[in-house]
Design a protein that fits this description.
Blueprint: H1 2-22, H2 25-54, H3 60-86, H4 89-116, H5 118-123, H6 128-164, H7 168-199, H8 202-230, H9 241-252, H10 260-281, H11 284-304, H12 308-316, H13 326-334, H14 339-367, H15 369-391, H16 406-413, E1 429-432, E2 435-438, H17 443-455, H18 459-489, H19 495-519, H20 526-552
Antiparallel strand pairs: 1-2
């Protein structure tokens, strides 16, 4: 009987722990992030395809949309982050959530109308009404992306830190779990919406995405409220360095006569008294100049951060063609790889990305946070060496004597049409992660590809993708390292604006990599782009090495029991996660 009672009690304890986990703030945060990321990935993939389908299968609208999105985050990243810092956490999260999902829903409705009545819209006002619809879609979609940026900053850079509390190991585990969710949704969400658009129609795709965002918005709103209720610390937020120090003193004085709630009320009272006076003193010119001042102050504050070199090193990793984007996918097609092979390679890249999150948590426990970034950088660069070797191997089309625009110039002089691949319907679009590849090439192009796949050795492209896929282990471990460094070392009152500037830096280097491809678009120059990309990755990790050297000095190489002679006996333990 006693043994049976123990078994019953053990089973009850197991069920109770499961229930407590599934109702905890941590799990609810994961669930809300999963819904948000799934909707984001579906929309980012679908909107590009919709714009191509709308504009006569041309990439013009997609290119304009990408430029507008990148430019907006580059210019407004600091301002968005400053808005996140100056408002309460719940207000920021709810506002950005509603704006993001409402914008996507509105875009979906407008796109449905355009798809259904495109012929009639072409005849009204000489087609200007249709042009206005295009502008409206791109503008609203850009607003949705800016709101998504605000959501990512407040949830992934602030809420997670508060929910984890002072436990840095818990923070590392939460960061890794969030990144695993990102990896899975990057693959699965475009596949799901792609199937709906392939076997249905663009109208059905728009309706599905709008309906999903409406339902997701309600669920995410409820989950945010639940997380906010379960984590009282989210209600306390410092909007300046002075207030932050006061809040820290309040936490120390828990056993004193002054109650914490009274202290918070005093701080809020001071803020509310001073705000009306500031509003009266602000003139019209100061109000106009405020965004520019915020932009300047944000970049200056970012430069002064102790983790500046680490953040800049991460941004440099965006200046690369060694990723599974439309550029690398297009190059793979010119080398004879089929869509099915590319899908398998993308799946392998997702698996190695998840392995990177696992490696991050293990390395951080064994060697500390700063050393984890150093080891991850070495691992990534070592894997990319095979990409450099692939440039000079048999099958590589590297030929710098070929002009990047030779084929276009020849066709224009001879009066021939430029080669285009235009799908006739949505079923002819290959839905892969974040890209759309035209598979309905003409018979001559298909025969050329078949001949090239038989005659051209695949050793070069095999080494290239082997390096790209294996390097993602180090890449995502390094990304998580820098993310947690920013979380731990940026003060609470500046988390938003610093992470906003970090997003701007990432977009800036991403834009530069697209400009690099525009200047050298032919496959013969892709090898040169690979060498430039690896150089930027190396420079990024050199910056991080300099940061790690400043932070740890000679202790940088004292990891996992292997200590250099220069390290003193009173050095901190290797498993310390502190900077």
């Amino acid at each position: 009987m006693a043994r049976a009672a123990e078994q019953t009690g053990g089973g009850g304890g197991c069920c109770g722990s499961c229930v407590s986990y599934f109702t905890s703030a941590k799990f609810l945060l994961y669930l809300g992030h999963s819904l948000s990321t799934w909707g984001d990935r579906m929309w980012h993939f679908a909107v590009s395809v919709f714009l191509v389908e709308l504009y006569g299968n041309s990439l013009l609208l997609t290119a304009v949309y990408g430029l507008v999105v990148a430019g907006s985050v580059l210019l407004l990243g600091a301002i968005i982050g400053d808005w996140v810092d100056k408002n309460s956490r719940l207000k920021v999260a709810q506002t950005s959530l509603v704006v993001q999902n409402a914008s996507v829903i509105l875009c979906g409705i407008i796109l449905m109308i355009v798809f259904l009545f495109k012929t009639q819209l072409l005849t009204l006002y000489s087609g200007w009404l249709l042009t206005m619809c295009y502008i409206l879609v791109i503008t609203i979609a850009n607003i949705a992306n800016l709101a998504s940026t605000a959501t990512a900053i407040t949830i992934q850079r602030d809420w997670i830190v508060v929910v984890a509390g002072e436990d840095r190991s818990k923070l590392a585990d939460m960061n890794a779990t969030v990144r695993r969710i990102d990896q899975l949704t990057n693959i699965l969400a475009p596949m799901a919406v792609g199937q709906i658009m392939t076997f249905g129609s663009p109208v059905i795709g728009c309706g599905f995405i709008s309906g999903w965002n409406l339902l997701s918005m309600c669920l995410e709103y409820l989950l945010l409220w639940k997380v906010y209720q379960k984590t009282p610390a989210l209600a306390l937020k410092a909007t300046s360095k002075i207030e932050e120090s006061e809040l820290k003193q309040l936490n120390v004085q828990k056993d004193s006569e002054l109650k914490p709630t009274e202290g918070v009320q005093l701080i809020e009272k001071d803020v509310t008294v001073s705000e009306p006076q500031q509003e009266k003193e602000i003139s019209c010119s100061a109000w106009i100049a405020e965004p520019f001042i915020t932009f300047r102050d944000g970049w200056v504050a970012y430069y002064k951060q102790p983790v500046f070199l680490a953040g800049l090193g991460l941004a440099f990793l965006y200046m690369t063609v060694l990723g599974f984007d439309c550029i690398t996918t297009g190059y793979a097609y010119t080398q004879g790889l089929s869509g099915s092979v590319l899908s398998l390679l993308m799946g392998a890249s997702a698996i190695t990305g998840i392995m990177g999150t696992v490696a991050f948590t293990w390395l951080r426990r064994k060697c500390g946070l700063v050393r984890t970034g150093f080891i991850s950088g070495i691992a990534q660069f070592a894997c990319l060496v095979s990409c450099v070797i692939s440039v000079f191997m048999p099958g590589s089309p590297l030929d710098l004597t070929v002009s990047p625009f030779a084929d276009i110039r020849t066709r224009l002089l001879e009066g021939q049409p430029l080669p285009t691949a235009r799908p006739t319907d949505m079923s002819e679009i290959s839905f892969t992660t974040g890209t759309h590849n035209w598979l309905n090439r003409s018979s001559s192009v298909n025969s050329d590809l078949e001949m090239s796949s038989d005659s051209v050795p695949l050793i070069s492209v095999s080494l290239l993708f082997a390096g790209v896929i294996t390097a993602r282990v180090g890449l995502w471990s390094f990304d998580l390292t820098v993310t947690q460094l920013l979380q731990e070392n940026v003060i609470e009152s500046e988390r938003g604006i610093i992470n906003g500037v970090q997003n701007s830096m990432n977009y800036l280097l991403d834009l530069l990599h697209f400009i690099m491809v525009i200047l050298a678009p032919n496959p013969e120059a892709f090898g040169l782009l690979v060498l430039i990309s690896v150089s930027f990755v190396a420079m990024g990790h050199i910056m991080y090495f300099r940061f790690a050297q400043k932070t740890l000095g000679n202790q940088l190489f004292a990891c996992c029991g292997l200590k250099s002679k220069a390290v003193s006996n009173d050095s901190p333990p290797c498993n310390s996660s502190t900077v």
